[in-house]
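@channel anyone free to eyeball this complex?
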Amino acid sequence: MQNFRMNLMVCAGTGCVSNKSLKVKEALEREIKERDLQDEIQVITTGCNGFCAQGPIIVAQPDDIFYQMVTEEDIPKLVEEHFLKGRPVRELMYTPPKEEAPIPKMSDIGFFKKQQLIALSNRGLIDPEKIDEYIARGGYKALAKALTSMTPEGIIEEMKEAGLRGRGGAGFPAYRKWEATRRALGDIKYVICNCDEGDPGAFMDRSIMESDPHAVLEGMMIGARAIGSSYGFVYIRNEYPLAIQRLTTAIEQAREYGLLGEGILGTDFSFDVSIGRGAGAFVCGEATALIHSLEGKLPEPRTRPPRTAESGFMGKPTNINNVETWANVPHIIARGAKWFSSIGTETSKGTKVFSLVGKVNNTGLVEVPMGITLREIIFDIGGGIAEGKKFKAVQTGGPSGGCIPDSFLDTPVDYESLKEAGSIMGSGGMIVMDEDTCMVEVARYFLGFTQDESCGKCTPCREGTRHMLNILENITQGKGQEQDIELLLQMGEMIKETSLCGLGDSAPNPVITTIKYFRDEYEAHIREKRCPAKICKALIQYSILEDKCTGCTLCAKNCPVAAITGERKLMHVIDQEKCIKCGICQSVCKFDAVGVE
Amino acid sequence: MKLKPEDLDKISERMRAQTVLREGAGRVKITVHMGTCGIASGARDILKAFVEQKSKADMQDVILTTSGCAGLCSHEPMATIELKDEAPVKYIDLTPEKVKRIIEEHVMGGKIVADFALAIGSERVS
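replying in thread with the prediction:
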C-alpha cells in the first residue's frame, strides 16, 4: 500500500461536523493537491476526539500536533508552514484558559493527559468507515480468540473475572446477564445493543458508535457466542443519523469479510445483526420498553419477573447491554480479565466515559479510570469552571441523577460512592453548575423533563412527578408553602419505591438531592420569596443604579418591550410593570449599571 | 472475501506503516529540514526521494517527517536520521543518490554513512 509520510486526522464527529469540519477537510485536500503533496500526505476523517468545545479539530501525525478551531481560511498557511515546511502553526494550537503558551502535542494537553481509553481507544486514530483500519489496530482478533480458543463458558468466566458492569445505568454485572440468558430455555436467543441514549446533553454512545462502530459489533458477536445467540439488534435513535450511517457501513463491511453471516472466520459460529430505529422517547432506554418498541408495540415498560434474560424480544431469551458495555468486551477478551480488573476500584472495574458539559471550560467527552475523583474530572480535565466562577454542584447520571455539592468533590467516581452521595453513575452524563445556578430551578427543569418523558403507564410516575413539578413551579414563582419541602421529600420517596421502572425510580433524585444539599435555597424561595442565585424571574427585579448609569441609552435601545425610559446622558429607569425580566439590559450595559435584586 | 483468523494478521501487516505513523512510534525517524533555505536548495526533491525509497524498500516502521531550518543553511538540503535508542545523525548537502545510500546503509543497515554525515547528536534545548 501507499506509503504516506503524514496523516492528518480530521475530526468528523457530529460536533465538529456542525462546526464545518467537512468543509475544512475539502479545503485541506484542495490545498494539498495544489502543493503537490497528495502522494505524501493523507487526509483521514475520524470519529469524535472528545474535545468538542474546541472543534473543528485536526491532529497531525506522526508529530502528534493538535490543531483546534480550524477554519477554511487557516488551511493555506497550515499546509505551507507545517505540512510542507515542518513548522507547526502556534496560533492554531490549544492554549489552556489563563495561560499564555500554547500546547503543541495532543498527548500533553491536560484534557487528554488524565484520560485512559478503552472503549474509546480507537477514537481519532482510525477512519470508522474502513474496516481494515479497525483490523489494523487489532480489531476482530478478540473475536477470533473467542471463537477458536475459548468455550462459551470460558468467555463468561473471563467476563466475570474482569468485573465489567453495565455502562447504561444500573451497573448490573454484565456476566450475570449473559449467564442467565445462556442458561435460559429456548433455542432462539437474541442480543441487543441499547443505543437509545436519551439523557439531555449526553453523547457517549453516539460518539462511540460514530468513531468505532466495529468495536460495538465485535463485542456483540463475542457476547452472542457466549450466550448461544445468532441474531442481534442495535436499537438506535433516529436523531443519530451519522451514527446510523457509520454503523450501516460497518455492518456491510463486516458481512463482506464474512464477519457477519454463516460460518464466521471459518468456524461454526453464525451471527447477523440489524438496526432498529427508535423515535427518541426517553423511556426506550429501559430494557423492556425498548423491546416493546423493537417489536412495534407501544414503548412501555412491564413488570419483572420474568426478566428479559428469560423472556425478551418476541418472548425469547434476550440479553441487552449498552453501547459502551459492548465496546469494552473485545478489549477484555483480547487483553484478559486480569488487565481489565487492575483498572478501577474494588467494586467498579475499568473505565467510564462521561460527557462533561455545563459550566466547565473544556466541555467534551472523556474516558477516565473508575475511582478518579470528581475534582480531577472537573478541574484537571475540564479545566475548571468557565469565566472564573465558583463551582456549586455537579449532576451525574443524566436528568434523573442527583446534584452533588463541593463537599463531595474528592469522592472517587464509582457506582457505590455516587449512590452514597445520592446520585447515580447512570450512563455517564455529567453536568457542572456554577454559583449562578439556582438549584430549585435546576430541580424543576429536570423534573419537567422526566415528567414529560414519563410514559404514563404507572400511576406513581405519571401523577406523582406531575404533582411534584407543580409544587416546584409554585416555589420558583414565589408561591411556595412552608410544608412543601417535606411534601416533596415524601412524594419523592414514594415515587421511587412504587414506580414500575427505572424512569420513575430515579426521577425524584434531582429534587431529593437539591433539598438535601441546598435546603437553604428552597427556604429562601419559600420564606423570603427570594432567589439567592437571582435566576427565578418571579422573584427578581432589575433596576438601574444611579451612581453607575451614564445615560448612554444602550439598554433602552435593546429592551424588547420598551420598558426603559430616560433622556440621553441622564439616568434611565425601568418600568417594573412592563419589564419581562429577560436580562438583556444587564448583558448589554457596559458600565455594570443594571442591578438585580 | 471471507476472512480466516490468519487473514486478520495479514491485514494488520499490510496496514502497519499507517499504524506506526499514527501512533508516532517507529523504529527510525527521518526528519527533512524544510526551511526556505532547504527548499531553495532542493529539500522538496530530497523529501520526495525519501518517500519513494521508503515505499520501495517497504519500510513500515520508518517515520518520515519535516521540520524547519536546522541553522546550517549553506549545507542544505539536510536531514536528521534517528534510530530508536541511538543519537540522531545529521546529513548535509543531500542529493537523491545520497538519500538512497542513507536508506540502504544507515536506516536499513544501521551503519552511519560517514562520507556525508555532519555530526552526531542534536543541539541542546534549554
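from a first look: Chain B has five helices and five strands.
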